[in-house]
Write a structure and sequence with these properties.
The structure holds 3 protein chains of 3 kinds.
Chain A (H helix, E strand, L loop, with lengths): L1 H35 L6 H22 L4 H28 L8 H22 L4 E2 L7 E4 L7 E4 H23 L1 H11 L1 H6 L4 H27 L1 E2 L3 H16 L4 H21 L5 H15 L14
Antiparallel strand pairs in A: 1-4, 2-3
Helix pairs in contact in A: 1-5, 1-8, 1-9, 1-10, 2-3, 2-4, 2-8, 2-9, 3-8, 5-6, 5-8, 6-8, 9-10, 10-11
Chain B lengths: L1 H19 L5 E9 L6 H21 L3 E9 L4 H13 L4 E4 L3 H14 L2 E4 L15 E3 L4 H16 L4 E5 L3 H16 L4 E6 L8 H10 L3 E5 L2 H13 L5 E4 L7 H6 L7 E4 L10 H9 L9 H18 L4 H10 L1 E4 L2 E4 L12 E5 L5 E3 L2
Parallel strand pairs in B: 1-2, 1-3, 3-4, 4-5, 6-7, 6-8, 8-9, 9-10
Antiparallel strand pairs in B: 10-13, 11-12, 13-14
Helix pairs in contact in B: 2-11, 3-4, 5-6, 11-12
Chain C lengths: L1 H24 E6 L2 E6 L2 H19 L1 H17 L7 H21 L6 H26 L8 H18 L3 H23 L4 H21 L1 H4 L13 E5 L5 E6 L9 E3 H4 L7 H25 L3 H11 L1 H6 L4 H27 L9 H14 L4 H17 L7 H15 L21
Parallel strand pairs in C: 4-5
Antiparallel strand pairs in C: 1-2, 3-4
Classes of the chains: A mainly alpha, B alpha/beta, C mainly alpha.
């Protein structure tokens, strides 16, 4: 009895961690969507770049002999955010800005092209081989009897969960409270009108991409430290899962992305726990279809009003 | 179709040349087909450096035969493999070293067999490839169906675990070996408690690990490649799930220690003999080092050998006619960096032994007696 | 303004440096069991520096560059350009189509084996593009899981042949029918979703099909795939020695009964190239049939309804059009064409496995539709050629080829956001006042 309960708790923790990992990427995804209404398929690639830069930074610190964890972490975070933001900014200027105002499928294809380009850019620079990083932060707590099944929670899992939660709350209050956030919402509602009212829409959209990329970089650093492996192709699957999570929660809604990601993580983890790992993607996509059938705009999405 | 005619002329003149016995320097064109781009390009690199080194060394040694190689990229995509195969036919190549992934080799070899092109794959391990009565297909690597039973017998006879989990990555290679291990274990009366696939590219295996922990698994066999097993080892270690793990040659790579750190200590691996550590290959390994290339990759020496057997068989048969060369290949043995090798009727190596090693956290390995 | 310009140009150069320096300039390599960082070679540094320099200069003189381009455009527009009335445009498209078909028919007799094979591959993508064009281009439903129907078609032939020994010609309609059924079953529940929600559900559906194919090892061979799928044969009536329906195949010698090699039947020498040519011609015939069907359909009420629905759903409903029936018909028809293409793909390939049906395949087909100009058949044909031939041409660049492929997609989209050949059809438009 106790064992089954502990097992369930353990799988719940696993699911929450996995969900937080998806959420970190999904929040950036959904924010870009919420403001300019386009699916940025290259977002997963920005995450991948963030991971690579974090690996480079941590390795460099190791070579310099600096091992004090907060310094290493901060340095990795800052350099990763810097580089990813540069990519996010250029991505928007090169691949999306010239296409603004055209059919909404056009930027989607451009994003797919960009995604292929970025994958191969990193592959040429860093090689297609997996790069690895030893664990930086280890340890955790365990619960349960010493001789039976023990549930555990590592510091890293907790850190991921906390950072995701903080990012979500900060971003939500930034969008809903600050002056720039209000400008963002104005741009989201009506770009032309916002422009007429004196909002520099180009600047706001650039900013959106930079923030989105920075969030992807945070995800890259944390997940890079948690899992310790990267190759130039990790962005694709991560982006796909994040996209699914964002839609599940109602695309454009930041708390929705978090909720969707957590549900997705728990669903995958529970499928692996009580059924089979082979079918976890089937279950998560099946769940998505099911939820969308009953709530066609996702869990926390605003119901679309049909304009006449 | 002028190209065909010219090709036929070329072939017939080549044969005529060979028959008349004029000892002029001939050119033997070899196509190297494998992934240069895509997510398995790292294995394609091993194939290319091995094969190119062989071409270089054989040319340097002199003789009547000058080798000329060209790399064709199939990105490990079956669709592109067919396109590449047709391109190879078109450009008049009669010898191919490749392809790398079994799923590319399979459709491509259909075309080679039809067109009378001789292909030697240095990396595709699926038993299906040579099951089809093909004359022109050879390989210089062991089969999944050799490796699985070797591992299975060792587990059953030496380790004697109570509860085994067999995990694989749902790819042709991983699932093939895992299935072979499972059936060997079952035939020996060992209970396989779990047989489960994961998705390649996954990063989080904590749910699976907790499941194995709860089921009381005391031995895990993993069929697949090093990035996933490295993560499983690392996460198992963090979760306090410390049992013995075993994997095929796809995991026997220095990178697994980089990923898993101390968790990789004691991992059991079935490996082909480490050709690059043999004393007789020292000069060759130094040649790789001089070019800043890594000779320890799993497919480097097998690719080298693939080029070499083609060259030797062409020399031995005294003709570039692939039909004659293939019967020469089946009838003779060849001295390569892999040792002296020969082929059976199906085109597989007549013997290819896998050895069992214990892996260490510093990336080294020791043979298990 | 001038200083502003310099500052911005400097900023852009800095951004370029930030993007290039860590990823190209530093490289992680494994040493022992750890990783160390190596600096790049001197030439890489020179490349990075010159890239930054170039960005700086381009941004600095952007205004003058732009005005130069504008001037050039003005010069161009002064040239007399033939402006065609709409109905002539349609006629032109017809002639272009006829020209392309003529060229396609002559193609196998002009070029080499690998070009014919490549052209066959292009034709498969033309079929797929035309099918998806109905769903995305005409009916305006964003489908990111089109590859699922392609997979259903391919596996129908492979499995039916494997288990029941059915021939290509029997399986072809079955494959189309099965794919259409899947399209119908999927379409039914999800069509009330809109836009991006529909996109992700179709994407999920595509993945689910692929995972099932990969997991049901006992039925589909799982990741091992299905080998030895026979090539299509040519049905022929034999008059000697007796009157019978036989099949001609294109191999050197055939083992099956009732199957006669093509070259023995016609008393020719064996030529391996006939096999490739036959496959090509078969694909061409299938393509032409699909083009013909679609050309008829878009002139029929259902075709008009698709486009009307794409333009304004509410107006359609108030006109009494049955929304569900129209969407479903588009979905089902589109799926059936993918089924035909899949069946042919399995035959060309002779081996299929789930890895041929991943999401990226859907993305490429979608890119073909968008790149061509949504709704336009000629555009789809052109875009399929571009998308499949470009990576082949880029083979010379070896490892750079996918990099260039990605970049080219972006550049083409920026250069022609409306697609290479946007759809034209007879229509009335209010003439806007000309710019002075």
């Amino acid at each position: 009895m106790l064992e089954s309960l502990l097992y369930f708790i353990q799988q719940l923790i696993n699911g929450l961690t996995l969900g937080s990992a998806y959420a970190l990427i999904a929040i950036g995804y959904t924010m870009v969507y919420g403001i300019i209404g386009m699916i940025n398929f290259a977002h997963g690639e920005i995450y991948m770049i963030g991971t690579y830069v974090a690996f480079l930074a941590i390795t460099a610190m190791g070579m310099l002999g600096i091992e004090y964890l907060p310094v290493v972490f901060l340095f990795a975070l800052l350099s990763s955010i810097l580089v990813s933001s540069a990519f996010g900014w250029s991505l928007e200027r090169i691949a999306y800005r010239p296409l603004r105002g055209s059919n909404r499928l056009i930027p989607l294809i451009s994003a797919i092209g960009m995604s292929i380009f970025l994958q191969n850019y990193v592959r040429l620079g860093q090689g297609s081989r997996d790069v690895a990083l030893p664990s930086v932060l280890t340890g955790g707590w365990t619960f349960g009897p010493d001789d039976g099944f023990q549930a555990s929670l590592s510091y890293m899992q907790l850190l991921i969960f906390i950072v995701t939660f903080i990012s979500m709350s900060l971003l939500t209050s930034f969008i809903s409270r600050s002056r720039t956030g209000r400008a963002c919402r104005a741009v989201a509602q009506d770009m032309k009108m916002a422009n007429l009212l004196g909002i520099d829409t180009n600047r706001i959209i650039s900013l959106t991409f930079v923030i989105g990329a920075a969030l992807a970089a945070v995800a890259g650093v944390l997940l890079g430290m948690q899992y310790g492996v990267a190759n130039p192709f990790i962005g694709f699957i991560a982006g796909l899962k994040a996209f699914t999570a964002a839609v599940l929660g109602g695309i454009g809604s930041i708390p929705g992305a978090m909720l969707g990601a957590l549900i997705l993580g728990i669903a995958e983890s529970m499928t692996a726990a009580y059924f089979s790992s082979e079918y976890k993607d089937v279950v998560s996509f099946g769940l998505l279809v099911l939820i969308l059938l009953f709530r066609p705009t996702g869990l926390l999405g605003k119901p679309e009003v049909e304009k006449i | 179709m002028p190209k065909t005619i010219s090709r036929k002329l070329l072939i017939s003149s080549a044969i005529a040349l060979a028959l008349s016995g004029t000892a002029q320097a001939e050119t033997l064109k070899i196509a190297i087909a494998g992934p240069v781009t895509g997510d398995v390009a790292q294995y394609g690199d091993m194939q290319v450096i091995g094969a190119q080194m062989a071409v270089e060394q054989i040319n340097k040694a002199g003789g009547d035969l000058t080798l000329e190689a060209k790399v064709f990229d199939d990105a490990c995509d079956p669709k592109q493999a067919v396109a590449v195969a047709n391109m190879i036919v078109n450009e008049g190549y009669q010898y191919v070293v490749g392809h790398l992934c079994s799923s590319s080799t399979q459709p491509a070899t259909d075309i080679y067999e039809d067109e009378g092109i001789l292909a030697v794959t240095p990396a595709s391990t699926s038993p299906e490839i040579t099951k089809r009565d093909l004359k022109m297909i050879f390989r210089t690597i062991g089969l999944d169906s050799f490796q699985g039973p070797t591992a299975g017998r060792y587990i059953a006879d030496t380790i004697k675990p109570k509860m085994v989990a067999v995990i694989h990555d749902k790819q042709q290679y991983g699932e093939g070996i895992a299935t072979a291990v499972k059936s060997t274990l079952e035939s020996k009366g060992i209970k396989v408690a779990m047989f489960e696939g994961i998705s390649k590219g996954d990063k989080d295996f904590s749910a699976l690990i907790a499941k194995m922990q709860k089921a009381g698994v005391d031995f895990v066999y993993y069929g697949g490649y090093h990035p996933e097993l490295g993560l499983i080892l690392r996460q198992s270690f963090d979760k306090g799930f410390k049992v013995k793990f075993m994997g095929p040659e796809g995991v026997g790579n220095k990178d697994i220690s980089t990923i898993a750190g101390e968790a990789s200590e004691g991992l059991l691996v079935t490996l082909p003999p480490a050709f690059d550590t043999r004393p007789e290959n020292k000069a060759l390994v130094d040649a790789f080092k001089a070019k800043k290339q890594d000779a320890s990759g799993a497919f480097v020496m097998t690719s080298y050998a693939a080029v070499q057997v083609i060259a030797d068989a062409v020399k031995g048969a005294g003709t570039q006619d692939p039909m004659k060369v293939q019967s020469y290949l089946r009838a003779n043995t060849f001295k390569t960096p892999m040792g002296t090798i020969g082929f059976d009727a199906k085109g597989d190596l007549s013997s290819f032994d896998f050895e069992i090693y214990t892996w260490h956290a510093d990336g080294t390995k020791t043979a298990v007696q | 303004m001038k200083t502003n310009n310099i500052a911005f140009a400097f900023f852009c150069a800095l951004v370029t440096a930030i993007m290039a320096f860590p990823l190209l300039g530093l490289k992680m390599v494994s040493e022992g069991t750890g990783m160390i960082i190596q600096g790049a070679t001197a030439s890489t540094w020179i490349y990075i520096a010159s890239a930054c320099m170039m960005v700086f200069l381009v941004q600095l003189f952007k205004t003058s560059l732009n005005s130069g381009v504008e001037q050039f455009k003005v010069q161009l527009s002064r040239l007399p350009t033939p402006s065609l009335p709409a109905d002539q445009h349609v006629r032109l498209e017809k002639w272009a189509l006829i020209l392309i078909i003529g060229l396609a028919l002559a193609w196998p007799f002009m070029t080499s084996r690998s070009s014919i094979d490549l052209a066959t591959l292009v034709l498969i993508y033309v079929m797929l593009g035309l099918g998806l064009n109905i769903v995305v281009g005409l009916a305006g439903l964003l489908d990111l899981g089109y590859v699922a129907f392609y997979a259903v078609g391919a596996y129908s032939y492979a499995l039916l042949n494997n288990y029941y020994g059915l021939s290509f010609w029997i399986c072809l309609p079955i494959a189309g029918l099965l794919a259409a059924t899947f399209g119908f079953l999927l379409g039914f529940p999800v069509l009330r979703l809109r836009g991006d929600y529909l996109a992700i559900v179709t994407l999920g559906f595509g993945e689910i099909i692929r995972i099932f194919l990969n997991n049901l090892t006992t039925l589909t061979g799982g990741p091992n795939g299905i080998p030895g799928i026979p090539k299509p044969t040519l049905p022929m009536i034999q008059t000697d020695p007796e009157f019978a329906l036989i099949s001609l195949d294109f191999s050197r010698s055939s083992r099956e009964e009732g199957v006669v090699p093509f070259h023995t039947f016609f008393g020719l020498d064996y030529n391996p190239e006939t096999k490739v040519v036959f496959l090509y011609l078969l694909a061409l015939a299938m393509c032409l049939a699909i083009i013909f069907v679609i050309r008829r359909l878009i002139r029929m009420p259902v075709g008009r309804a698709w486009e009307a629905l794409r333009e304004d759903e509410i107006a359609c409903r108030s006109l009494g059009l049955n929304r569900t029936a129209i969407k479903l018909s588009a979905f089902t028809l589109g799926a059936s064409f993918a089924g035909f293409a899949g069946c042919f793909f399995a035959a060309r390939q002779s081996f299929i496995s789930p890895e041929s049906f991943t999401f990226i395949e859907s993305a490429i087909i979608l890119a073909i539709v968008v790149l061509g100009g949504m709704g336009s058949q000629l555009g789809v044909i052109l875009a399929a050629i571009v998308m499949i031939v470009l990576p082949e041409l880029a083979r010379e660049f070896q490892e750079y080829r996918m990099l260039m492929f990605g970049l080219l997609i972006v550049l083409i989209m920026i250069w022609r956001p409306q697609g290479l050949l946007p759809m034209q059809r007879p229509h009335l438009a209010i003439k806007e006042a000309e710019h002075a």
